[in-house]
Design goal:
It contains 9 helices and 2 strands, in the order αααββαααααα. The protein is mainly α and 181 residues long. It folds into 2 domains: 1-14 and 133-181, no CATH class; 17-125, ARID DNA-binding domain (DNA polymerase, domain 1), CATH 1.10.150. A two-stranded antiparallel ribbon has the order 1-2.
Length: 181
């Protein structure tokens, strides 16, 4: 979704803010009990659903995941340096789990990204989300790499009104998806 579409989608949405810092990053890393308590409270305060993911039949240790990613300077750095396999090696997943890097990245972004912003980077105020979390490795958004390019001009007036309706429906779906993350 382009930045323009993102702004259209969020123009009707109430701006959400980060809750206050619940504990220092050092305390979270040192004490798993503090980590789990603050992570649950954080999701409650954010109004987001929190369930511990299961990978290979075992609950994912979110504390270990948070420690390993922040040890490598955070989510965006791990993504840009393609270090998810390195992070995943700490968990000793079965060799049958071929998508471990992808799954860790997905769960981290959904459950720990905003928590990291507050507790590791000490952000306050409105939520910060990268424009396209997958854009670092997924370059399909670049026009020169796109398989299909669309004309910036509508073919006719009827087509234009139909396209606006589709954009509105697309934004509603995308906003719903973003709220779930």
């Amino acid at each position: 979704m382009s930045p323009v579409e993102r702004n259209v989608c969020h123009s009707d949405e109430e701006e959400r803010h980060y809750p206050p810092l619940l504990a220092s990053h050092e305390d979270l890393v040192r004490d798993p009990n503090v980590f789990w308590d603050t992570l649950r409270r954080f999701h409650f305060l954010m109004g987001t659903k929190f369930l511990v993911p299961v990978i290979g039949g075992k609950e994912l240790d979110m504390h270990v995941l948070y420690v390993e990613v922040t040890r490598r300077s955070g989510y965006e750095k791990v993504v840009s340096e393609k270090k998810w396999r390195e992070v995943g090696s700490v968990f000793n997943f079965s060799s049958t789990i071929t998508s471990a890097s992808y799954v860790l990245r997905k769960h981290y972004f959904a459950l720990l990204y905003h928590y990291e912003q507050v507790h590791f980077f000490k952000l306050q105020g409105p939520l910060f989300t990268p424009l396209a979390p997958a854009s670092v490795t997924n370059h399909s958004w670049k026009p020169d790499l796109a398989i299909v390019q669309y004309s910036p001009k509508p073919i006719n007036k009827h087509h234009n009104s139909h396209a606006k309706g589709k954009l509105k429906n697309y934004c509603a779906v995308e906003c719903t998806i973003l709220q779930l993350c």
